[in-house]
Structure formats: structure tokens, C-alpha cells
């Protein structure tokens, strides 16, 4: 694939932005170009007030089969550190994004691909998907957050088994471990995830954004601090038109029409 061909495709429809990783010949291996394009796509999402939900998926039979081994092979220490840092910064932008990010994991999510999926808010998987952090098979550690997000998602013991062995697991095991929220047949995955996205898009946008913000911020705080943050956020909701509309609509027995303010 030439450097000028895009490897992240973006489509916005009905308040949902779908980002598709697209280097199918290399199983969507994550290279520098893809990281830069993900960065730009996130900025485009931030600039588009119509976007209420993001879906991240992959073209072909992979979500992403890892960071691009061909690109990384010749790296020295500095370059590897810089690549890892750049990827980490961009992946973290999904967590900070003011709208939910749903991963529709259509196939292999290995190494950097699993790490990218874990930076999304909710992971949905095709029955065909495979997950793993196989970096130790290549003589390296994960570098895009796998040593940190995997234990936070499935607990340190199960995470360390996967991290130390490089074992690849199927969608059913990923579900059992709590890594993915739900598993769908491959052919209906995207439609199912789009249905969830539409459901979210119909809710109060500020309430959804702030719920994400509190969950994300609270995860790093002691419970009493986190609950204080929740109470403050709940209070903030009562200064919005959406709260008046949402509660008013309930009492008037009609559907709410939220404005996001
Ligand atoms: N990087 C580059 N190319 C890849 C990658 C990859 N991660 N994965 C697959 N490809 C390429 C193959 O080389 C092949 O190319 P070609 O057709 O030119 O030979 C093409 O994609 C198709 O792959 P396969 O023929 O291997 O397809 P199979 O269906 O037989 O196998 C597998 C699929 C099992 C997924 C297999 O491709 C595989 O094992 N891939 C590598 C998986 C892996 O080890 N991933 C982890 C990579 S390391 C990583 O992600 C570190 C993240 C931290 C980065 C920090 C930066 C410093």
C-alpha cells in the first residue's frame, strides 16, 4: 500500500462516526501512518458536533493483527520508545473523547490491535475474533498500553497469563474473561453495534458524555472522591436544558428531544 492511500476510513451517518482500519493486505497492522490518521480522525470527530458515538472496526478478516512488525523490526531503542509513546497518546484520546467509542472487533485483535480495542469504551466481538498479546513471542513487551489496560479489564492474574504466554484466545473466552461485552455472529456484528450506537445517540448527549467522564476519571480515584465527582456531575446536569426536557418529557408521557445543552 502506498503512503498516500488512506488506512483509516471515516464515515458519519445519523450521529454515528464509523472509523475503519483499512490495510487489509497486512491484516490492518498498525504503522506510523495509521497512528497519524487515527489522530486526525479523532480530531475530525471532535470538530463535528453531530457525532454522538464512534464505532471503530477493521476491514477484512482482522480488526488489527498488531503493530506493524515490518516497520518496527529495525527500530533502535529511541525509535521504539517514540513509536510506543505516540501510539499511547493517540489511543488515550479515545478514552478522553466526549462521546462513547464502541469497538466492533470483526477479527484478529492481537498485540497493538487488542490494545487499541481496549482503549475503546465498550468492546463488541464477532464470533470469529481472536484476542491476545503475543508480543513475548517476538521477544518484546506490549507497548501500546497492554500491560496496563489488560489487567484493569480482566484482572492481573488472567492478564499476566495472557501476557506471559502470548496465548491467543477466542471470542467466547474473551467474553468469559470480561474483555468483551457481547459476542455476535460475524455477519451481524456491525448492524448490532450500530443499533447500540443509535440507542446511545438518542439519549441526552451531555448525560452520556458526563457519565463516560465520571467512569473514566473515577477509575483512578478512591471511592469517596469518585462519588463526590459523581454528585457534582449529577448537580451539573440540573443546570442543563436536557435535564428539563428529559424529566419534562417523562412526566408529559412523550419522547424527549435532547439538544445537548
Ligand atoms: N505486522 C505486519 N504485518 C503483518 C502483521 C503484523 N502485526 N500481521 C500480519 N501481517 C501480514 C503478514 O505478514 C502477511 O503479509 P504477506 O501476505 O505480505 O506475507 C499478511 O499480513 C497476512 O498475514 P498471514 O499470512 O500471517 O495471515 P494468517 O491468516 O496466516 O495468520 C495471524 C494471521 C495469526 C494474525 C498472523 O498474521 C500473525 O501471527 N500476525 C502477527 C501477530 C502478532 O504477533 N502481533 C503482535 C505484533 S507486536 C505488537 O503489536 C506490539 C505493540 C506495541 C507497539 C509498541 C511499539 C514499539
User: Order of strands in the sheet with the most strands?
Assistant: 1-2-3-5-7-10
Fold-level CATH name of the largest domain: 2-enoyl-CoA Hydratase, Chain A, domain 1
What's the multimeric state? single chain
* Radius of gyration over C-alpha positions, nearest whole angstrom: 19 Å
Strand content: 15-25%
Task: Explain this structure.
It is a single chain. The protein has 261 residues and is of the alpha/beta class. The protein has helices at residues 32-47, 69-72, 77-96, 112-118, 146-154, 156-165, 171-176, 189-201, 205-218, 223-237, 241-251; strands at residues 8-13, 16-21, 53-58, 62-64, 101-105, 108-110, 122-126, 130-132, 169-170, 182-184. Strands 1-2-3-5-7-10 form a six-stranded mixed beta sheet, with helices on both faces. The longest helix has 20 residues, at 77-96. The relative contact order is 0.11. The mean pLDDT is 97.
Any chance you could write out the topology, listing elements then pairs?
Blueprint: E1 8-13, E2 16-21, H1 32-47, E3 53-58, E4 62-64, H2 69-72, H3 77-96, E5 101-105, E6 108-110, H4 112-118, E7 122-126, E8 130-132, H5 146-154, H6 156-165, E9 169-170, H7 171-176, E10 182-184, H8 189-201, H9 205-218, H10 223-237, H11 241-251
Parallel strand pairs: 2-3, 3-5, 4-6, 5-7, 6-8, 7-10
Antiparallel strand pairs: 1-2, 8-9
Helix pairs in contact: 1-3, 4-5, 5-6, 9-10
Briefly summarize what is shown:
This protein is 48% helix and 16% strand. By secondary structure, it is an alpha/beta fold.
